[in-house]
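The protein record passed on for reference:
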Amino acid sequence: MYYPKPKHIGGTLIRSVVSLLRKQGVELPLKNPVWIAVSGGSDSVALAHLLVHYGRRVVAREQIQILHIHHGWRPRAADLDQKRVESLAKKWKIPCHTVHLDPGHLKKGESWEDAARKERGKVFSEINRKNERVLTAHHADDLAETVIWRLATGCFNSHAGGILVNDESTGQIRPLLNIRKPLLQAYLREEKTRWREDRTNQDPRFLRARMRKELMPAIEAIFPNAIEHLVNLALAKQGEKDDQAPEIPAKLLPALLQTRLKRQHYEWLLRERAYGNQMDLPGNWVLKCEHSNLKKTKRWVLERSL
């Protein structure tokens, strides 16, 4: 059987997906049928296109079905989303199933985001009962936002891993958690595949949208590698066996964001609780806090001592 060879970005993405899933204990290729949740946006369209065309090491093409959930809150736009997803599935010759949800009425104090997540969860649970998996397109930017949200709301100790790659309790697998959104969109442009933008993703009424528009760009402006480090931190925590994650001291957070702390260093810092402007770490490494009197700023630097 002929398998097409991915272009440059596609090859990078599929290697990244395979590597992440194997590191998180997912046995590949997946044996049971999978449903790829596709909204019509760039993230989910990229995931579906990648696995349908180049994902044989993840799951056989004949095992794939497309799942589209029509929430019913944006009737005209949602109808266009549905048509786009069904059109793509037809073009790719992949079965597509659309589930229509009743928007109903929000409970007191419940957000649209929470209500939508609960309704999607019910659909995913039904699929999981059949011993089939749902693949969703949460990506690195989503994971970093979740880590920041949990740090800010005090939930980090019990949910340090953020969004799970392999959530066996719900049957969800998230293969894109170490891939940035701009790369997914670059992949679709490389493949000349269009997507639809959901305007609610930029609606300031939603907490996630405000974080995405205001907070995350500000963090990256100060700490250019922050997203990468937050993602690495979350994925490392998912690999731990203990249910209770250790508390991260506030003074250590800038170092985690600014430097590529090694796992052994991170564990040592938590264990020793020795924090100052300079810390001697295992393996002849030193973590320094450098001050700039001119700019009145400071930054953390990880370097090897002689």
Remarks:
- DSSP finds ten helices and nine strands in the chain.
- Confidence is low (pLDDT under 50) at residues 241-246.
- The first strand starts at residue 34 and ends at 37.
- The radius of gyration is 21 Å.
